[in-house]
Amino acid sequence: MISTKGRYALRVMIDLARNENEEFVPLKDIAARQGISKKYLEILVRDMVTANLIVGVRGKGGGYKLCRKPEEYTIGEILEIMEGSLSPVACLIDKKFDCPRKSTCDTLHLWTEFDSMIHDFFYNRKLSDLINRDL
Amino acid sequence: MISTKGRYALRVMIDLARNENEEFVPLKDIAARQGISKKYLEILVRDMVTANLIVGVRGKGGGYKLCRKPEEYTIGEILEIMEGSLSPVACLIDKKFDCPRKSTCDTLHLWTEFDSMIHDFFYNRKLSDLINRDL
DNA sequence: TATTTACCTACTATGTCAATAGGTATATTT
DNA sequence: AAATATACCTATTGACATAGTAGGTAAATA
Q: Which of A45, A68, B86, B96 has the smallest C-beta neighbourhood within 10 Å, fewest atoms?
């Protein structure tokens, strides 16, 4: 389940990619275009800055900007940063977790396959794949 | 994200499939074999009965039993009943929901594709695929 | 009648989600 | 220097879901 954190963050990234010509895009504008509460976006955007997905500049004329080209971001990376993990089951979130039922679990294989599929799906798609509206 | 509801229910189904020879399998035994709280399983198992995944019989010698052959259950069906929906995003859970951003949403296509992939993954797998331990 | 089982209602502790509120710091423009 | 526009920060909240626990009732068998 992808929450608004990941979904909104993706839309912010797309919005920034579409406005690459402008130096810095104010969050106010993004919030208005996307129809999302600016106050809520502030929280998400802060995490995105911390994770080096975007850069922010304060003061008049400030705003946010991508720090790479759209084709250099994978969707998986963006979502994983915002959601914490893309793993669909608790036992696969922490890679170091050594489940005692590991050797006898009848469903581990299923979840591992599912986990791989999700990972591949999102890491094989780039931000640039989403900026063209007519797809 | 698949919760314990879906995951435990799947393990109960596998356990019942493995013990098809016994007429009725008491929940106590399943809980012990699977290492899951019996009290918690009671809640899940009730939903499974209501959804006609399994049948329960009271009294001594009672317990639970599958009502079809293992190859006649898809994993998708079991998980969808327990989780409510397999959709990874809120806007796709309710089929009738007509999102006002539908025509302009930059991410709808991504989520629709993702949703289909998940659906196919689980509906193309049957309970019988999970009962053989050596896979 | 005693026992075993399913079945039922209610409660709870913890955490996450999706925000909101109100402020501070910094850069630019006038 | 002042006004303005922006990012950035801390704290709080209401609603809901998760993962159970507690204590009982109903029905079937031995």
A: B96
